[in-house]
Amino acid sequence: MAEAIQKKLKGEVEKYSQMQKDVSKGVSARQKLETQLAENNIVKEELDLLDITNTVYKLIGPVLVKQDLDEAKATVTKRLEYINGEIQRYEALLKDLEKKSEQHREVLSSLQQEFQKAQGLAVGKV
Amino acid sequence: MAEKGKMNKEHLGGVVRLREEHQKVVKDCESRMQHWKKVSGDYDTLNNRLKTLPDQLSYDITVPFGPLAFMPGKLVHTNEVTALLGDNWFAKVSAKQAQKIVSHRMKYMKNELDDLSKTAKDFEARVGLAEDLENISPGKGDYVDIREDARNIEAAVNKGRQRTAHKPNSKPKFDAMLDLKEENEENEEEAEDGGSRKCTITEEELWAKLDELEKLEQLEDEQDRLCDSADMNGEDTSSLSSEEEKDGDAAPSVNGLSLKPSRTSAPHSKAPPFTDRKPEGDDDEEEEGNRLPTIFFSHAMEPKKVRINTGKNTMLKFSERKEQKEHSKRKKKNGHSHHELHKITTPVDIYRLFVDVKNGEPIPRKSILKSRSRENSVCSDTSESSAADFEERRMVGRSFSHDEATHSDTSDGITEEDSPTAVPLHHASRFEAFSGTVVEKDPMPSAVPHLTIAPPALPTILERKQEEVAPDIAPPQEAPKRVSKFKAARLQQK
């Protein structure tokens, strides 16, 4: 009886750790997106500071490619929007993961209690 | 004190950890601030450089050539600066424009620094609080922990008695019914013994009874709504059952007392709630009946309706009113038989009360908990299966079961109007055989007969009856066989 519970407990613990990993992954991804968001904001603002006489380049690999100022501005704006959308998606995902992990935690605690009881019984018997 | 010590230890551990976490955050903030400060310094120098760069058309410099070598060279196009805007975007700008960009970035950095410093301050404060907490727990310092036991709330909630959740078929419901009856009795008791009994009932029990009364009132409402007429026949059986339950309760229950002997013959209805009580209560109360002095009490309150859960998804509704109705109905027609009934000297006499019709053969009454017998019982069977049957048989059953051949439901209405006061007198006289005059539960004695007499019990009693009782009662029954009332009546008629 105790052994079965122990096995169950192990399985649940693994699942839970997996969930935790997912959660942390989601969190880090969101953080990255946050920094990108900030950076792109700065870029946008700085581009606004420039005028048409300045040539804008984009670094693609080892190459600096000339870009139009307006094009650059548009591209940056689009990228900003994209990043915002990604952030929202990740937030929703994180929420979901959190809920699931909570449930899992409860399951784990109950299993632990059972296990302890069984352990106690075993000890008593012995 | 030990508990306090334990709590302090745990508390202390938690507080220590809290403090450590706070300190971590503070350290993190500080490191970031350092970083930003460095960057800020770098930007300052850059700014300066940009300021001075366009001063000359070209500069002679020593250009680093790989990691180990330098080369003399010239710095040209001093006003043209390719600035990294971020995210792999570059812009060729003049030195001045570059300066603008730099100052813009510096602004952003300043914001970040300010935020970080705020967070650091915040967490430093928390760290201080945690330190204070640490000091409180072991008892040092000037802080005192004020605790207040919230036991009052518990008492209020429980109302003095621990209440546990019970399954529907378990005893406590009976307690409710019994308590209900007791309360009714209490209200009208006049004898000393009744008074003494009141004293024994503690405040806590009163509270519990009040709660149960509330429940019963709700049940009553439901009953009224559901089946008013259908309940007619349910009275007697339920009254008996409720009485049974009462018996199990406080010993000096006169009601139970007077009925106890009558109930011994009543076979133990198979309903789970009853069986537990009966064997215990019967022995006690029978003995007590002899010892206890007279207890007089009258019951004038509006009778309550009570539900008995007999399992199998059925509920027997007990209504005192209906009991009375039934009783009074029976009384009307059975005036002559009362003389006989009054003389109860042997158990056989009691048995007489429990048979339906004595027109030639005493038809034993079935248990109210068996679906067939419900039509005649005071209890109304709320189960779906028997509901239809119940409706059908109601009219028929009445004509058979009751001595006064009541014919319609209207008669019930009439009987309802009967004042209960008239009835008690009958009962009082009827029970003279016992030590005390019981005015209270009028319909009960008559209702009791309605109730459950399992067929197996009949043969033995029947034999006795044959021996002792006048031969006016012919036993045409095939005693061992289960005969429905209708069949028996039909046989009778034949």
UniProtKB/TrEMBL annotation, chain A:
Record GO terms (molecular function): protein-folding chaperone binding; unfolded protein binding
Record has Coiled coil as a keyword: yes
GO biological process: chaperone-mediated protein complex assembly; protein folding
Pfam families linked to this entry: Prefoldin_2 (PF01920)
SUPFAM superfamilies, sorted: Prefoldin (SSF46579)
The keyword Membrane is annotated on this UniProt entry: no
The entry's keywords: Chaperone, Coiled coil
GO CC terms: cytoplasm; prefoldin complex
PANTHER family, per database record: PREFOLDIN SUBUNIT 6
Family: Belongs to the prefoldin subunit beta family.
Protein name: Prefoldin subunit 6
Species, as recorded: Cottoperca gobio (Frogmouth)
Automatic annotation (TrEMBL), chain B:
The organism's place on the tree of life at top rank: Eukaryota
Molecular functions (GO terms): chromatin binding; protein phosphatase inhibitor activity; transcription corepressor activity
Residues covered by region (Disordered): 221-343, 364-427, 467-494
Extent of Basic residues compositional bias: 327-341, 482-494
Location in or out of the cell: Cell projection, Dendrite; Cytoplasm; Mitochondrion; Nucleus
Ranges of Polar residues composition bias in the record: 376-386
BP-aspect Gene Ontology terms: negative regulation of transcription by RNA polymerase II
Summary of the function given for this chain in its UniProt record: Plays a central role in maintaining S6K1 signaling and BAD phosphorylation under normal growth conditions thereby protecting cells from potential deleterious effects of sustained S6K1 signaling. The URI1-PPP1CC complex acts as a central component of a negative feedback mechanism that counteracts excessive S6K1 survival signaling to BAD in response to growth factors. Mediates inhibition of PPP1CC phosphatase activity in mitochondria. Coordinates the regulation of nutrient-sensitive gene expression availability in a mTOR-dependent manner.
Family: Belongs to the RNA polymerase II subunit 5-mediating protein family.
The protein, known as: Protein phosphatase 1 regulatory subunit 19
Encoding gene per record: uri1
